[in-house]
Design brief:
The strands form 2 sheets. The chain has a 7-stranded mixed sheet, with helices on both faces. The chain has a two-stranded antiparallel ribbon with strand order 8-9. Helix content is about 25%, strand content about 20%. It is of the alpha/beta class. The protein is globular. The mean pLDDT is about 85. Helix 2 runs parallel beside helix 3.
């Protein structure tokens, strides 16, 4: 299948962040035999045009959109960050009839509410490398979607218990290639390279976002 994966994050509140999680998913589905294009919207000036060119040029059968943040976590003047993602979903919908699948750390915090607000066709809460491949196989065979880990469908809720990995070596992450980093535009640009120390948390505390995604650190690197 042809998959267009979109990193919807454009925020640089602390630092510009490379879409490591989505790149791992891209490599996982590519290793399963699918054709994949990853579009990183971080430094794109005209998001709608970039999406239009990608959709019309690639003609994807599935569109995956990664949602990194719900808000900026600023108590004094909070900024809601899902409205730009809603526009991205609407743009993709206007360019293609392909099903739209949500994922990412931000989506995983409020999967049912975010799915309804953003108007996508389905979403995967938690780790996507395995669950997304299962979803693609079922969609390709037009099979029943029940039981897929972390999959949410509109008005039908979760279809399968969220899969949690206690040790990263139990779920080896495919190493994404440098071709995934489409936002690297300047040879002198300072890049923050993320790396994961653990994935999520099963406690699901209402005040904490860490159950939705990975706990990560980053190092700064400047190309020369």
């Amino acid at each position: 299948m042809r998959l267009l994966l979109v990193s919807a994050n454009t925020e640089k509140i602390n630092m510009p962040v490379l879409p490591l999680g989505l790149a791992c998913v891209a490599e996982a589905v590519r290793n399963a035999g699918h054709e994949v294009i990853l579009v990183d919207l971080m430094d794109q000036q005209n998001v709608r045009t970039v999406l239009k060119d990608a959709v019309h040029g690639f003609q994807p059968e599935i569109i995956g959109i990664s949602v990194r943040n719900i808000d900026d976590q600023c108590m004094e003047k909070p900024e809601f960050l899902l409205d730009p993602v809603k526009n991205i979903v609407a743009d993709c919908r206007s360019f293609s009839d392909a099903p739209i699948v949500l994922g990412g750390a931000g989506y995983s915090i409020f999967p049912e509410s975010a799915l309804a607000y953003l108007g996508a066709d389905m979403g995967i809460q938690g780790e996507g490398e395995i669950a997304f491949n299962v979803l693609l196989e079922r969609l390709d065979w037009k099979a029943d979607l029940s039981g897929i880990p972390g999959l949410y469908l509109p008005y039908r809720g979760i279809q399968g218990k969220v899969s949690l990995t206690k040790y990263l070596n139990e779920c080896p992450l495919p190493l994404p290639g440098v071709q995934e980093w489409t936002s690297l535009s300047s040879p002198n640009e300072e890049i923050w390279l993320p790396f994961q120390t653990r994935r999520g948390c099963p406690l699901n505390c209402s005040y904490c976002a860490k159950h939705g995604g990975a706990v990560s650190a980053a190092i700064s690197w400047r190309r020369s």
